[in-house]
Amino acid sequence: MKKISLILLLLVAFQIKAEEEIDNIRKTAKTEFGFKVMKFDFVPHEYSSNDFSNASKKPLNGNSGTIYPFFLKYNDLSKKYGIEFDILSYNIANPDYNLQSASRNGINVTNIDFGNIRRDEFNLNYLHYYNPSQPTLFYFGLGIKKIDRLSQDRSNVFSYEEKINTIGLKIPLRSTIQLANNLNLNLAFDPYYTLGQRSYRDERAYNYIASDGMTYPYVRILLEDRTTFTQIHGFDSEVSLVYSFLENYKISLGYIYSKSHITLKNNSDKMFSYFGYGNNVYLNNIVNSMKTDHFRSIYLSVSYIF
């Protein structure tokens, strides 16, 4: 009888201990799910890479919008690790700008427009809290970043499309500074490097009037180098004020700035051109230099912690 009582007491003790450990895990392990309302401005390389020595380039129009991405975070400070996942997708349709130049006849204004430009980014980060006494003051990790970029436009006389798909690594750097009770300042800086493939098409065909007053055809076709691979490297930076309320809720006001450089490697694209006047045929090498995308956003987010 005494042995049975002792066994029962040990079982009760183990049960109490197990429940305490589960409670401790629940206190240190937290999952956060939320949405952002982001007002963004996107300056694609199609605009930023066009420089004119004899003309004035005006600001780009139609390159802003509002998106509502979600994010998911998990961290366990007792085990010194965390996980982040988010998807960022944005699109601008038919952005344009004016190009002004001076001549003997006065000021000439040319409107230049692009078609549809879309960019999708997928981020998965593993974070390490290395400092047990102040785990969130500074922490870092290793992540995976995937970038899909699409630029396309077409009309009755031309068709253009460039698809880029890259994947690579990023190094997330984080800091959380407590400013007051329930109010924190969050800082993030994520340099990254990705590598992938590119699909490119550029075709134009129309008739033009030559100096003799006759109409002739013009044809231009890009001969894509299919061995080309694309490198996208840059950084994502973010600063935000985070206020915690009602125990399980957070509201944040933040600013994001991202800059990415796009470079073609092992590339030897050629442009075939035919001018009907004189039956002239040209085959020229295309020189591709580094191009840059810029992304800025102010956002408001709400999240729930469980």
Automatic annotation (TrEMBL):
Domain of life from the UniProt record: Bacteria
UniProt keywords, alphabetically: Signal
Protein's UniProt name: Uncharacterized protein
Keyword Signal: yes
Signal peptide from the UniProt entry: 1-18
Annotated source species: Leptospira vanthielii
